[in-house]
Amino acid sequence: MINSSRFDSLNRLLAWVLTLVIAMGILPSFNALRDQLPATIGNIVGPLNFLKLALPAFFLFIALNWNRIPKTGKWSLVSFIGLGSVVTYVSNQTCDTSSMHFREWAVMSTGMIAACSFALLSTQYQRFILFFWVSVLSTALLINYASVDLLNMIHRNIFDPSRVLAPDQFLLQGFYDIASFGKLLSWAPWLLGIGICLGRKRLPSQALFVFVVLNLVFLIFSLRTTQRGPLLGGVLAMVVATIHYARNQKNFRILYQVAAVGVAVALIGAVLLPREIIDKRIKPILTRNWDSEVLRKDESRSSISQRSLIWTYAKKSISEYPLGTTCIDRIEFKRKGIELWTAHMHNEFLEQTRSRGWLWGAFFTCFWIFSWLTYWRRRDPVATLFLGGLTCVIGLSLVDHPWFVLNHSVVIGVFLLSGLFKVGESAQNT
């Protein structure tokens, strides 16, 4: 038998350590620091990331608190990790062994395990993590605007020297790259809102309007990275979350008020954004001519036409490989006129079904639907914000593949798993 006091002390120590680890998990891998290690050690360690290094501690913490996990949460976590591991191995046999296939699964499962640990922490620790994440993203945004030289120094010595910007170059990338930073910025308001609302039973309508404005400001910055997927997800998320809030409050007039505020902020953003971004990233979506040849010749809309062709290829691959495949047929890509080489299908649900098979694709999709419905049925403000965050990821996932790096993975895991653990619905005692 383990001494009860020692058990409690170990549990508290792990909770404190993992709070710091999960908080630091929002940062990218410390590749520049790893390169300063001796080559033999650097090759063994690989990308230097706290979430990866803390995996044994995550497993121990979950084991010590297994009885606190709701039955739904246990089945969800075990089935996700178990089935995902099996189909990843099986699908990899249909083609040459792909280390990237296993790496992607390691990233996804690590994020889910870290999110499970997050759900088991006390509300105080959860709030610290969420506020820390938003603070890091906001700091990255400020440094990017204030001093590109400082940002380059950070990349050169800590994160990734390949992201150093030229003196005459300006990209809104923060501590990440533009694709990653755009996604994280669109998720930041939801993380902040959850942190504020944890433990609260209601959200005043005035706070909702402030949140809508803040969300749109972050989306404007997200669009400044040239990424359109986060904008799609963010707008969809605000619509769903506002409807959820209006239903809970039985006040549907607020939908019109929020829409008016949203349009006003969007018009201001359109004035402030660089004209080049408006012309090349927004206007092409609003034009009526969707002829494939016109799309292909128009550089600003080529990513739209290429995605439609990639999705056609994905559907064909899914029909041919029911167990999934890691291979992408370059000849078939070229035959379909796909000029943009990609390692994924630019749709999370198609990608998972294509690469890991029909069984996993059905399970994966149902998992997201079940989590979404769990939030929808709840009536508390935290559920509204989790619902918005999850919808934001879903909207983005329809046109991209966001689950490929650890900092994305832990945030997605928190949105996806926390409802099954009833985070925010009742006080926690850890």
Walk me through this protein's architecture.
This protein has 430 residues and is mainly alpha-helical. It has one domain (4-280, 343-417). It is 71% helix and 0% strand. It has 21 helices and no strands. It has helices spanning 4-24, 31-35, 39-45, 50-53, 55-64, 71-91, 99-120, 123-146, 148-157, 178-197, 205-223, 229-249, 253-272, 275-286, 292-297, 302-320, 330-335, 348-356, 358-377, 381-397, 406-417. Helix 5 (55-64) crosses helix 7 (99-120). The radius of gyration is 22 Å and the shape is globular. It starts with a helix and ends in a 13-residue tail after the last helix. 41% of the residues are buried.
Give the gist of this structure:
The chain has helices at 4-24, 31-35, 39-45, 50-53, 55-64, 71-91, 99-120, 123-146, 148-157, 178-197, 205-223, 229-249, 253-272, 275-286, 292-297, 302-320, 330-335, 348-356, 358-377, 381-397, 406-417. The protein is mostly helical.
